[in-house]
Amino acid sequence: MFKYVWPKGDWATKSRVIAAVVLMLGSKLLNVQVPMIFKGIVDGLNLDLAATGGTLSTVATAMLIGYGAARLGAAALQELRNAIFANVQQSAIRNLALNVYKHLLDLDIRFHLSRETGGLTRAIDRGTKGISFILSSLVVHLFPTLLEIGMVSGILAYKFGPQYAVVTVATMATYIVFTLAITQWRTKFRRQMNVADNQAATVAVDSLINYESVKYFNAEEFQAKKYDRALANYQKAALKTADSLALLNAGQNAIFSTSLAIM
Predict the structure, then answer these.
(1) Which domain of life is it from (predicted)?
(2) Which runs of E-coded beta strand occur in 96-191?
(3) Per-residue confidence of the chain (263 residues) as pLDDT tens digits?
(4) Four-point Cα dihedral 151, 157, 158, 160, nearest 10
(5) CA-to-CA distance for 220 and 241, rounded, in angstroms?
(6) What phi and psi, each to the nearest 5 degrees, are found at residue 27?
(7) Contact, 108 vs 36, CB < 8 A?
(8) CA distance 58 to 179
(9) I need a labelling partner for 85 at 20 to 30 A (CA). Which of 40, 124, 138, 218 fits?
């Protein structure tokens, strides 16, 4: 994927990627400041207002404005980063989809005679959507989250002691290992869903394309049963996917709840 996100000689796309990374760093720096400013507000207001006079009100007001500005700034930088990176994301999807299309046109006729149109088009559509998901997960979620975890762990170690940072890092390590293990196990159910989805699309599209032949041979009921079998296979795989997702979410919540109790 890297050559589509960082295309050779395309400085316009590269500049957008750099701008998105800079905005992401700024957003995370502001984001980790928000709870610290909030802590300062609570500590600052935990005084006798009558004894301190108007100075406390002025300081508290300034801190409240800073708190709102930090939250707003973090959200604004994040949304601006998403808007800038969306151009890179859509360009990558367009270029990769075009290359796949050219590749399909270059294949010999034996390939196209042995393939079902419905399943092939569904696979292409799923692939382009998968590109969008991968780029969003890596750039918008994974790297920023790892960066924020590192900054938060450093702050916890500095403010409260290394044991809090150890708990945080151990929590994330456990979370990552657990998620990867369960996700690899769940992948077979997702593949079964994709195969059944391709089969259903193949039956539906090919029977509609060859509608005259279906009518000539009175094959409506045959095609309907064939389509229903594919849907039934999809249903079974979808239920397994949903059940395994529930297990994944329950395990992740258990990890975080345990860590919060330890903290």
Answers:
(1) Eukaryota
(2) none
(3) 778 788 888 888 889 888 988 888 888 888 888 888 888 888 777 766 566 555 666 777 788 888 889 889 989 988 998 888 888 888 888 888 888 889 988 988 888 777 777 778 878 888 877 887 887 777 777 888 888 888 889 988 998 899 999 999 999 999 999 999 999 999 999 999 988 988 888 888 888 888 888 889 998 999 999 999 999 999 999 999 999 999 999 999 999 999 999 98
(4) 130
(5) 31
(6) -65, -45
(7) no
(8) 48
(9) 124
- Whole-angstrom distance, CA of residue 178 vs CA of residue 9: 40
Assign 212 to helix, strand or coil: helix
Which residue is associated with the tokens 């890092």?
169
Cα(258)–Cα(254) distance, integer angstroms: 6
Nearest of 25, 40, 27 to residue 71 by alpha carbon: 27
Per-residue tokens: 45: 């207001």
- Do 203 and 223 touch, CB atoms closer than 8 A? yes
Give the tokens for residue 235: 């249903």
Q: How far apart are CA 67 and CA 141, in angstroms?
A: 24
User: Judging by beta carbons within 10 Å of its beta carbon (0-12, 13-18, 19+), is residue 106 exposed, middle or buried?
Assistant: exposed
Looking at this protein, which amino acid is placed at residue 10? Answer: D
**55-78 b/e with 16+ CB inside 10 Å = b?**
eeeeebeebeeebeebbebbeebb
Q: How many residues does the chain have?
A: 263
Q: In degrees rounded to 5, what are phi and psi of residue 89? A: -65, -50
Taking the model in full, what pTM does it have? 0.69
What's the token pair of residue 219?
A: 């094959």
